[in-house]
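Why does residue order matter? Because the sequence determines the fold. Keep that principle in mind as you read this record.
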Amino acid sequence: MFDEIEGLCDKVVSGMQVTTMTAATLAPSQDVAMLTAAAVAVERVRRSADAAQLAILAELARRGFETGPDGSTLETRAPAGEVAELASDTIALALGCSDHDARTRSRLAVRLGDDLDPLIRPLMDGAVTERTLRLVADETQDASRDAAAAVVAHVLAPMRGTDVPRIEALDRHDLAQACRRVLDRTDPGWRESRAEVNRRERTDVRTYPGPLGTTELVACLPSETAHVLMAGVCEIARERQREDPDLRVGPARALALADLALRGVEVSTHVTLGLALVRGLALVRGPSDPGEAEVAGDVKTAGEKRTAGETRTAGDDRTAGETGTAGGARAVSAAEGRLIDVGATVDPWVGGVEIPRIGWVPGFVVQQVVERLDSRVTRALLDPETGTVLETSTTGYVPPPSVRRLVELRDTRCRMWGCDRPAVACDLDHATAWPGGPTCGANLSALCRHHHRVKHAPAWSYVLHADGSAEWVSPAGTQRLTWPTAYAPAEALAQAPAEAASHETTGAPDPSTPTQPTTSGAVARHDTVDHGAVATAPPF
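Structure:
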């Protein structure tokens, strides 16, 4: 019987395909009442499908794996109400969703298969949403079984004077209050104990990418702290609006929060620029001041004094092959460390950068950071064919700072499919275990601590291919590929090699020489190291 589920689902999908084509063709000729009825019918199917999937996840989330005494892989089953370790990772890979979504749905599914079992019925009937059930599950998360059972009975009972269950009739706010009133009666003191735990363990500040060029900053704070903070933000925002009447309230509050957070704080940045190589040359933008122009053979080392007219960002000590970022275009000889002027009249340019969990920072902002703040600028050389960062290796197990820096720049984030934890907060994992595999960029990649453990867990497979792709295979057989984030746009270099080589020979400027945009980004420093993987340019 269970093997018929896929066939039944195929029929439902076929029905939805027909529904989609019918709606696309005939919807313009229907009135609002007919369109609304159709939307409600489709919503009922979607909710019922959620119930079916949660019923499956309730069992799948309890399945785990361990290594037996003889080295074989054994399947395990967690106790009722508990999610097996790493089960949500298997689900995330299979459903193509984020780790967070997989963990949230796994916990809800296990609860629905245990003490919240009666709640699956209204979802199966299409009467409520999965989000509604999650609200009840969250409200009863730390409650005793008796208290949770009392809440379930209460929300499934009809509203006074009606035949409609409370879980269907009440909106989210009123439903939450109904759950809490029952808990107050059955489990006195629960609010105080839960509030204490939440204030101690669940307060946090997180960032998420917002609309292009922006970042969402989400804070979970003690209630009284949030109240005072918001009052301060609103007060400063009003002052800004009095100074600038055209400033809308949203941007005014954002600027006010930044004023409060950065008041009295000194900011120092470290910007790493990825430079694409062209037959031994790295094309970069350099200072536009003629006094800064350098010719073949002129090499600056760390600590060398600057000449008249030369400009440099604060804290930038240049070694052979390194350069600043503001101004005209120059080629850097990777082999000899020479700087060759290839035109000092080009407008300043630094590429924008995508930062995991933050979002996209425009190029002009990166340049302003480099020019105006106390910034240190270093370089990392990228292979234009593969996009990998070129660097030296070490004979030891622990990667030196230069190797760690190149892996962080190249990978940008954890190499697990769907994970957005920044590479600077990850371990470095050896693809081929050391000492069998070297400690170098080609054998290291960034894995967050959780997915580092997943890689070494029973029944999981992690393979790095020659093209740089990392292949994950879950215990269920789901396969996903990932690629490194930072890469050079090789197609833009198609005409550059011969021209760049001629400039290295003559040192003469040529306006036709294309200036290669660089992959650039603000890179934080992190000292924790562990083991790693291979990477190359993604095919997208």
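The two ends are 42 Å apart (CA to CA).
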